[in-house]
Design goal:
It is a single chain. This protein is mainly alpha-helical. The protein has 2 domains: about 40 residues; about 40 residues. About 60% of the residues lie in helices and about 0% in strands. It contains 4 helices and no strands. Helix 1 runs antiparallel to helix 2. The longest helix has 17 residues. The chain is flat.
Length: about 90
Amino acid sequence: MTDIASLLEDAAGRMDDISTADLQVMLRRAALVVRNAGSIALDDRTEEAVRGLCRELGLTREDAIRYVVREWMEQNTYLPVHMLDEDGAVDGEA
C-alpha cells in the first residue's frame, strides 16, 4: 500500500488529471494521519518559528501547524480558496 505522502506528492504533480473527489479522499486521509499523530518532530529553527506563531496568534502548537498547512495548501491551490459572495451581506467596510 502506498503511503499518504507519496499519494499527495503524486497528485501535486498532476493536478489537472486528478479528480476533486480523489483529492478530497487523499486530503481527508492526510488530515486523519496528522490529527492522530502523537507528535510532529521539527528541526530547531522550524520549532522556534512555530512557537513564535503560537505566541503571536494565541494558538496551540497543533492548531498553529494545522493553520500553516491549511494556508499553504490554499496558497498552492491544493485546497479551494474561500471566495466572497459579491451579492451577500458583509460585515464592516471595504
